[in-house]
Design brief:
The protein is mainly alpha-helical. The chain has two domains: about 35 residues, no CATH class; about 80 residues, High potential iron-sulphur protein (High-Potential Iron-Sulfur Protein, Chain A, Irregular). It has two helices and two strands; from the N terminus they run H-H-E-E. A two-stranded antiparallel sheet has the order 1-2. The longest helix has 26 residues. It starts with 6 loop residues before the first helix and ends in a 22-residue tail after the last strand.
Amino acid sequence: MPNSVSRRDFLARFAAAGAVVSASGLLTACGGGGAPTTAAACEGYASVAPADLQIRQTFQYVDQTPNAAQNCANCASYIAPAGEGACGGCKLFAGPVVANGYCTGWAAMPAA
């Protein structure tokens, strides 16, 4: 017995599939394809030595700052990423950090 699908069912399914594809494209355009939001998702994090991870813990690094006015991106120790969508670094400890991260070594950038 052949599997018959009415024209109406076919068009409804086709439209639903198009909506799903369009929605995923919009999410990517709204930041879904940008820089990682956690340091562990950054390139190079897996190769950070255990001793260096301990130093990160000593500085109490977190991926989400508790204070919007103090984050890695506006810290004097932040090393900006080389490319768009990449993670930055820190002069205080090894391994990648995210721009919205924070640690107890935060220091304001000097006035320009």
